[in-house]
Amino acid sequence: MKKIKLEILGLSPSQSQAGSFALVLGEESGNRRLPIIIGVFEAQAIAVQIENIVPNRPMTHDLFKSFADGMNYTLKEIVISDLKEGIFYAKIICTDSLRQVEIDARPSDAIAIGLRFAIPIYTYEAILSEAGIVSSSLTEDEEDDDETVRETVKASGSKDQLRDLPFDELQRMLDDALAKEDYEKAAKIRDEMGRRN
Question: Is domain 3-131 given the CATH code 3.10.690.10 in the classification?
Answer without folding.
Answer: yes
